[in-house]
Design goal:
The chain is an all-alpha fold. Helices cover 60% and strands 0% of the residues.
């Protein structure tokens, strides 16, 4: 049976965006591991040509399977990971439970996906490789980064007024 504190916590979490927020306190230098992983991830993106504007254009023109293979592999790895997390009740490295909440479909996801895809096709960049593209010297992508930040802010500003 849930206690009042648990019920109150669930009410707060039902309106929160991140239900997996950690209650643990971390030192700032703990984030260094994420910096290292991010740099390695960027190197993999560069070597796999995932950040190549040319490869992205090939994908949207249906001229090459390269990007579809990369994206498909990522989807399969994600599906297997979620399955294993649920099946074996895997916890974080700090012992906290991982909660994967059910997602409700709405038509706004279609509109958002279309806008996202259009932006991706026009700029040759999606949020994943933006920093890697800038890191390789494609500094014009900084405009895309600023646009992504502005779009995220704008959504946050309008979020309460939008039908969810």
């Amino acid at each position: 049976m849930l206690q009042n504190k648990d019920i109150e916590s669930q009410k707060i979490n039902s309106t929160a965006q991140c239900i997996n927020d950690s209650s643990l306190q971390y030192r700032p230098n703990n984030n260094l591991k994420y910096l290292v992983v991010g740099i390695l991830f960027g190197i993999v993106f560069v070597k796999a040509e995932v950040i190549s504007w040319f490869r992205i254009q090939e994908m949207f023109r249906l001229q090459s399977f390269h990007m579809y293979g990369v994206i498909g592999s990522a989807v399969i790895v994600g599906m297997i990971s979620v399955f294993l997390i649920k099946k074996f009740n895997i916890k974080t490295i700090h012992g906290e439970k991982i909660v994967i909440s059910p997602k409700k479909f709405n038509k706004g996801q279609i509109y958002g996906g279309l806008i996202f895809g259009l932006g991706w096709a026009l700029t040759g960049a999606c949020p994943g490789p933006l920093f890697a593209q800038i890191g390789t010297g494609a500094t014009v992508i900084a405009i895309t980064l600023l646009s992504a930040v502005a779009g995220t802010w704008f959504y946050g500003f309008l979020r309460d007024k939008l039908p969810h």
